[in-house]
Amino acid sequence: MNGFAGHVWVLSLVAAVCALLMVHLLAVRRTAGSSLTGAVVLTLAVAAIPAVRGEPPHYVAGVALTAGGVVAVVWATGRSRRQRSARRSALADYEAGTAAVPLFAALAERDRLAAELHDVAAHRLTGIVVAAGAALRLADRERTGDALRHADEAGREAVRELERLTELDATAAGFTEVDALAAAHAVDYRRTVDKAPAGSTEATYRVVREALTNAARYAEGATVRVRIDPTDDRDEPVRGGGDHPFVVTVTDDGGTVVEPGLGTGRGLAGLAATVTAAGGTFRAGPVGQDRREGWSVRASLPAATVLPLRRWPLWRGAAALDYALVSLAMALSLGASLLSADVPAPFGDLLPALVTVVLSGLHAVPLAWRSRAPGRALAAVLSALLLWWACDRAGWTQPPVSDIFLVYGWVELTLVHSVGVRLPWRPGLFAPLAVAAVGGLALASGSGITGSPAAAWAVLAGVLALPALAVWSWGSRTARRHERLRAADARRRVLLDRDADAAVSAQRLLFATGLRDTALQHARAVVAAAEEGDLRAVRVEARAGLTALRDLLSGLRAGDDADDAPPPTVSGITALAARYGAVVRYVGARRPLPAAVEVFAYRTACALMAVGVTLTVRTLPDGVEVSGPAPAVPSVERRLHALADAAGGTLSTTDRGAVRVWLPEAFAWRSE
Fold this sequence. Notes:
By secondary structure, this protein is of the alpha+beta class. It has helices at 2-29, 32-52, 57-97, 101-138, 141-164, 175-185, 198-218, 267-277, 317-338, 350-364, 374-393, 401-408, 410-422, 425-428, 430-444, 453-517, 519-532, 535-557, 572-580, 595-608, 634-646, 667-670, and strands spanning 188-191, 224-230, 245-252, 281-286, 295-302, 583-587, 614-620, 623-629, 650-653, 658-664.
């Protein structure tokens, strides 16, 4: 019989180990929700066994608590392993892909300069051609003088703006520049919006400038109206959800084409991309059936952007292990006490049971603050231990506080390690000394201690100081290792930024050479002809400048694009979108993110990317959010869910049919 019982015990042990291994593997290979479901099912199954056998309720509760605590820790360690593996994979992709960063930075700068070149030169030179052509046709002396003065002023502005393109990036245009632009064209203008993000004001300026340029080309003599007014969110929805839009409209009542063939054919397409990237919507077209009846340009743009903090779900990241440790501490302090045939002494009466449960909770729950505030958590645990000592002295608790510290002192040591990781070494050094002092007091109150209590306390505190200092030193070394990793990441980014800046500077140099030999040369010739009073030469040079501009833009677009995959970074999403004919809207202050977070943001964008879509990348105070239209294929949504889960983030849907993937910045270091 004893042999049979021994075999049953061994089989039970093997079954328990196999079950825990399955929970661990499930947490490593599956998302948090599905693996947590498996862990809960296992805990309930274990608790059901003694219930079916007819064991007392307190015994069943003890089994459930103990099994739940152990399973929680096994599940949390599996989650931690899953995130470490995800982080290593992301870092490997980052190292392999960042060689393309300088190339794609140069391509992005090329596209930016091309867009600026189109907007600036086309705007100034078109006005010169139109004014000179009209004056030459009318052969009016006064009109000719006005055209020459305009050519001189506008030509000098064109020269200055073209030269600026080869310098550092200009500050984004604001509403003040829009006001000045409207005043210079003497149009019917009204603005009732005072504040907006820089991206919205820059897009507004470009919309108004392009629309006024087109009106000068195709609607001579028309009345042009420019309006910038707020509108109802329900009437003019903008992309990104939650932003309150304003509307920019530029309309004319029709006119005649004065100088055909001046445009490059890409102005409205570029505007649409700019407005969409700023989070708005754009449309342009004739007022009636024909352009001669009038033309309307309308852009809806966000006037405010709110970047909320994201709450860290309890079952994700380092918080998962913290709450699992809380479960384990509660399970061992309460569950183990309940595992007996008779009702344990601490639970015999209501008052002792209540005191035991409260003290156990006070001693265990602060573990949940281990990652966020380890110093306060340790102070709370030590206070609970002192309170337990006081209740023990009053005879209110069983077992004694000395037994509690001997069995559950790992709680204090766990927090000492966290203090070593999270806090500077000078204030952190008090943690192991405080644990040694309070722990020595708890042990010195045990029934087996004889002699002087003070001497026993001093000796026991000294003995406890050794393991406490060792654990704290381990935490400090871990903190230094993390700091070295962060420093290495920062150095890598500095070198990468330096290479990217060098590539951008080289692109600007090539661009400057092209400008110097083409549009810029003709713009200077316009100024010289205007000074000499030769209006025909002004018109010829301005038209030649526009032709050179068109050829230069065509040459830039025909340049060799990168055949390599874009770098797996947040900035690389722009190049990825260009290949799909998609648009990326960046919201929030752009700042360097940990390499692992950048890679996961890029992977998320890859999963969401499709032809013509608009993605929004929000840089939040505690991470980054990538959002876009909900995928029609279920497998893509499952992939997004797995990506967010592996990075410790979340996947959510909006009432506008979009999905949002939040990737916390803390993932990069908490998964260590």
